[in-house]
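hey m, so remember when u said the tokens were messed up on ur end? i reran from scratch. heres the input so u can diff it against urs
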Amino acid sequence: MDFPVAVACIAFTGTAVDEADGIYNVENLFDTIGSPETYDTAFSPQGSMNWNTSRYMKKIGMLARAIAAAGGDRPVDFIVLCEVENDSVVSDLIDKTSLHRLGYSYIMTHGVDVRGINIALLYRPLHYSPFHTACLRPFSAEDSWTTRDILYVSGLTHSGDTLDIFGVHFPSRSGGAQGAVRRKRVAAFLKAKADSVVRRRMRPRVVIAGDFNDEASDVSIRRTLCGDGKFVVLHPDKSVVGGTYKYRGKWNELDHFLVNAEMHEVSFTSVKILTSDFLLEPDAVHGGRKPRRTYLGPIYKGGISDHLPVVMEFLP
């Protein structure tokens, strides 16, 4: 049975065994039905991507394998997924694949992104009991742009402590300087919300996770989110691969975990990029390896995602 959850939309108007948390941008997890309300018609059997049931089922099966691999001997307790279209694709992922036996439930945003993509949190009810969620909208009705909502979930871990999770997918890097300004603005909005949670918790444990579309050295993270030292970026070992996303032969680290400073001091244990062989393929053009993606432009490559998953372990 799912735990009861209070849901609200907020618009922007001006030890025991370690627990594990994951981030995964799953690269356009769309169903095969075009929606007249969003720009997703390419992902249909008649669309330019030739997206069909066979390809869809293959993708969710491989995603399930990746999520299972992320936990090793013990399943990951919480997973922030970026680029999921709707409830049906998340339900299919956790109910119609090998993940079914792990008993995941989910919470997700239902935002107004022009492409129709959202953020979801998968969680194991025996290990996390959500009591409040909100979709935080970091733009106003007067703005000429939109972006993905931020997913905020508060819940109790199996140890009885409160864990607050923010799932994010910042504006695209394709916008150039304008995109950087928007990412900084979203980061400022997120920072205010996260700081308010830290202030009202006696023992704050706040995790911010997702695709930031920025490096840790960029302004949105280095200065806006972490400049005052209240939040810390967790840096994974990059000795095997150089990041989570590869563009024109260069590795980028765009998928991050941030935690509040108190949690970093007492609870954090490790963070790693998942580099299982089935997630990667040879980079014939630039050398080395690269994520085994589903599409390259309109060309179907048959892979899983253009991002690699990241896994954090922490004490409950």
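this time it looks ok to me. The radius of gyration is 18 Å. if urs says something different then somethings off w ur setup not the seq
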